[in-house]
């Protein structure tokens, strides 16, 4: 089983979640009000009320077989709007 | 006289709380208004300003003067992005120039509210229909900004703009402009939608169930000034934090964000004079032209012109133009108004 | 006359903001009230309605009419789940039927508050003790719902209900009903506890330190209407989001959630007539019977009847019954009240 | 060392945290206001004020030896009330 | 007479909501005020109390009596930590003794506000400059606490205190005391900064643009009592949760946290009598001496004396001293005041 | 690639984020309002308004080569102010 961690602007959240489900993941979890720093600069809590919004952290646990499909669906979105994704190994409890 | 206006503005509670926020960041205080509390206050201010505006619009009616003023405001929100774009294009690529241009064509509701408070303290009248002008200036500027961005996009970008996503959402003719998405961001953006919606509700309630007005009053009217102070405290913190980003933006953009407001305000003054607006309405019209958006426009640009660098358009609008207008601009524009516009 | 009542309701600020929220979702606006702001408003409304109710209860006293009305309300909150359960059992399994039945036996405080606002606009009087009825209707419905769920559970479930956890918490006699947990969820649920607690405090303050009443007034009374509008904006958003879930729920449940309110309201009207309630109290009594809980009951059911599918009981209560009551129900019940209940 | 990630309704949080400590874990962290999708449907932010509440994300780092005990304590709770759990490998910084 | 004061306090809305919160935890209700809502109320209360205090300070002016009182308050905030430290050192190590001593030398704004509300109900006057005393008592206690901690640190700790970090931030002479950090935590701490800032703004607005005062009134004055009730509900919940920690703290600290308040209050009474303060000001002065900080001091101690165990200084200040003062202390001190201080 | 998870008081957040960047990490993400239990006791949501504040969860994805530098920068901070850190393996999506 694989664990995918995504960090992206909460403004793209809807799109990303739809892509995750469409790619065949059975579930995902979202944390909002995430701040941080990345290739395209710093997102601080103070911006939360501005139009930019803060980041979201999306966690998806998928079967190994589904990973490729999720990656394929998400990479163009992350490329276009910014955001990063990482993969690691996991197993059900 | 002008200096007394500046002082009167500087010593008002909202502006003092704004300074308190800025100073806090500068001296290194850890004071912060944790999210989503700032959003509570910004939603509240939009709802209240919209409701009150709609209410007064119902009282004043939609006469020719009202429609003319609103029409002129919309025209300004179409023209300002065009001229700004031409200027910004001298130094910036098309995406960034378009996004910043859209921001300056659009408005800042909090600047407008601060100007209203200032007029209240001076006991100068103004009309509720100015809020309608405010509400209608956000969307056109966004649409113009997106069109400018697409027109100035390199050819290959235009072709492939939406290829990666499902095609149902887009109409690819004419350079990959996804009209549905653009219009959605322009008109249904949370802050635009709430402002216009509250305006309509204020109008309807005033017209059809006026008993409700009095019951809304403690919430939308009485509380307003204090909530504005609280929010400006946060705006001061955020604006000061943005100041740090200005190192990246460069002298050209810093100059633009400090000179555009008074120039646009002067154009607004001219238009107001032609329209024969009262002193109060003239100040508000100038503020609408002079202010730049850091809520609706960034939200829309981020989705429709992701190639633009958000820290450029946010930092200029929020870190420089907003403080400039709130602290110096409003009393300055009032002094000009008093000089050029006859007392009603 | 009835249509004028409907209009008066539709054109009131709270209902208009409710529509604004619904419309926002339907047209695809990204307007949202980020959590935990909705919780702030729901806590505030419970505190304020409780405090005001307790205060007026202290003024009216606990006479026979008061006790009879409250008693009748409690009886309704025991009967409605039973009849609803029998009906729902035709199509649903025992767990889901019981959870939904509990929801309809219990009440929606926001519907009640909206009805009070409506009466205020119509300038029809009502009594503070109705809030006590409101507060006392939540717990019995929960207890009945849990008992029904346990009684209809398959035999093996009953035996093993609590096996996995520490046994100190439960009394396994009679089908694994964990009384302590059930009573805790029924009576100490955050929203029930705050409402009853505020009611008692309002009573005590009114009785023993009336000077405090005036100082609470700006918070609990003046601000109330505006805060209700703000909260209904969010309720509109949430209700519209729930509408999407109704595909799963099926026609039977949709029919139930739209027909149960008027039927229960009619029973409430009958009881009110028998009790000789005033027009205002009759409307409130009908609304208590007609409304369904989406706060206290789901919270309790989730813990005590986890086998039931939350999206069924939440979607019906919040996505259909709540909008129905707020938009159509309240004026409809008022029209019936005016027809059948003599003016006090 | 093992890392356990749990996603469950915040209403069960107390129970789950007690079970974690009782099973011998030395610490845990909780993030609330989590939304997501899983076997039993979608939990959206809008529900936060309703009685259902949102999800919580619980992270527990435990010695390998404690994993079994924590798993044993949590699985019946997740089964009864819903929620998912995943395990991966980690080491102290 | 004293018992009537206790009753009047117990039956006031703020104290009743405080009890409601405590009781909720004790009986196991899941009522909670989710974060960051409590922060909204604490920020609001600091802003409002500061603004009102500054406003009244502008009216009363900075005469010798005012300066003397403020000076005496500052002296108390220096002395109380010293004597407390000596006592606490009997059983605790230097770090913990210093941190707790700082907490008791500093103040609790909410206790102060509750005392003001109590005086309002009794219709006893007090002066706005007492808020200035409140604002100026936090920082000295913090500085004393840090110095005591460093002085009692084992020699090797003193040497290496800051070695791991960049040295620009610190002046390592004299035991590794990082003065910049200490002063920053003492004076620029979010809550201290907001309180002092609002005080200054209230003063400036009252002096230079008094028209703004009336517009702030609904926010800072009218809403205040209700918001205090709401916040005390949360304080009750939090205080009761802290009670659970007291098992670890031991009988000595429990005794200290219940005896220190009345002893410090008595000293405060003596000083007030010497200064010739009015009854209202005397009560507030006693409350300042008697109360302990759970916001500014823990924030500062956590950064500057990380060796101290936060649950010791938080649990005593918040779990015992705060409830003691709010429930018993305030009426008790008032009874003493009435006995020893002549009516103005 | 390595994934670092840090849990610490939000009061030390600024310092920790600066140390992370200074050590050469290209990005990080922060979640606040985290509660939990650890070696030095429980941090509950109720404390959020008090001076102590709640915890923060910091996630840093770094190249293997940078891990040592980040660890070296953070360990003294965690030791001095409390807080824990864990490392696991990951790869870019
Ligand atoms: N190396 C990293 N480790 C953890 N979070 C990251 C990292 N890089 C980027 N992020 C997160 O991803 C967000 C979006 O990145 P960006 O690509 O800069 O828009 C940032 O604001 C961070 O919250
Ligand atoms: N595959 C998954 N990946 C990440 N989060 C999940 C996954 N499945 C379920 N969840 C989370 O667990 C929560 C509870 O799941 P459920 O079992 O549907 O009640 C969901 O709302 C999600 O937040
Ligand atoms: N084993 C663990 N697993 C997950 N989180 C932990 C663990 N130990 C500590 N924490 C988190 O780290 C925070 C700080 O720990 P402490 O060292 O006690 O100050 C705690 O409040 C928890 O949120
Ligand atoms: Na503009
Ligand atoms: Na009902
Ligand atoms: Na003190």
Automatic annotation (TrEMBL), chains A, D, F:
<dbReference type="InterPro" id="IPR015867">
    <property type="entry name" value="N-reg_PII/ATP_PRibTrfase_C"/>
</dbReference>
<dbReference type="Pfam" id="PF00543">
    <property type="entry name" value="P-II"/>
</dbReference>
<dbReference type="InterPro" id="IPR011322">
    <property type="entry name" value="N-reg_PII-like_a/b"/>
</dbReference>
<dbReference type="InterPro" id="IPR002187">
    <property type="entry name" value="N-reg_PII"/>
</dbReference>
<protein>
    <submittedName>
        <fullName>Transcriptional regulator</fullName>
    </submittedName>
</protein>
